[in-house]
Amino acid sequence: MEFAIRHTWDSNPVDHDPIRISFSDEKSGLRMEVSGPFFNDPAAPSGEPGIAFPGLWDYEVVESFFLDSTKENYLEVELCPHGQHLILLLSGVGNAFYQQLPIDFTTTKSGDRWTGEAVIPWTYFPPNVNKMNSYVIHGSGAARTYEALYPIPKADIVEGQQPNFHRLEYFQDFRLQSIMGEDWVQPESDLWKGKA
């Protein structure tokens, strides 16, 4: 299952080849592959590649959010072309209760392109994922660019509005069974116990 991020957060077309994200079965988790332009702006985070890095959203990053819209529980996966990552588990809009969980993540850069591959353990996903959105952030200062797979429609934008990737009402339908097969049952996770 592949997606291309072709719009900015506010529904304008991007001015470059789109970042592509694909999801596939990896038995122990969801394989997430990213490919596209490497902007190299801003500079690399100071953290070690392959290790969680807090505040990664301030750098060049690709993000995917997996939501159970009935309970507003969601997983946020952030992947940086320099090799750092950030995983957040959230219950309620913007309310992270776990951060910096480990994942297997590798990247390859070749000129002005990059690819990344991560395996996200099933235990990180909230039960009953039914919505998803993905984002790209790159650039510095006035050239900072925020892109969205499912952007906010122009008719919904108000003057002075800023990008906010936690606008869950704009996420679109997504089921893990569409990748894993209709008979697949998501493994239970202690990480999500007690999250209403």
Question: Could you describe the 3D structure shown?
Answer:
The protein is mainly beta. It contains 1 helix and 13 strands. Strands 2, 5, 6, 7, 8, 11, 12 and 13 form an 8-stranded antiparallel beta sheet that branches. Strands 1-3-4-10-9 form a 5-stranded antiparallel beta sheet, with no helix packed on it. Strand 9 and strand 10 form a beta hairpin. The longest helix is centred in the C-terminal third of the chain and has 4 residues, at 177-180. It is globular and about 45 Å long. It starts with a strand and ends in a 16-residue tail after the last helix.
Q: Helix amount, in percent?
A: under 10%
Structural class: mainly beta
- Count of individual beta strands: 13
Q: Any idea what the radius of gyration is?
A: 16 Å
Approximately what portion of the residues adopt beta-strand conformation?
35-45%
- The helix tally amounts to 1
Gap from first CA to last CA: 30 Å
- Show unreliable segments: none
Mean pLDDT rating: 95
What is the string of helix and strand elements? EEEEEEEEEEEEEH
User: Looking at the structure, what is the overall shape?
Assistant: globular
Q: What features would you highlight for this structure?
A:
196 residues; 8-stranded antiparallel β-sheet
Write the layout of secondary structure elements.
Blueprint lengths: L1 E4 L1 E2 L10 E7 L3 E9 L23 E8 L4 E7 L5 E7 L4 E4 L4 E7 L2 E9 L9 E8 L6 E4 L23 E2 L3 H4 L16
Antiparallel strand pairs: 1-3, 2-12, 3-4, 4-10, 5-6, 5-11, 6-7, 7-8, 9-10, 11-12, 11-13
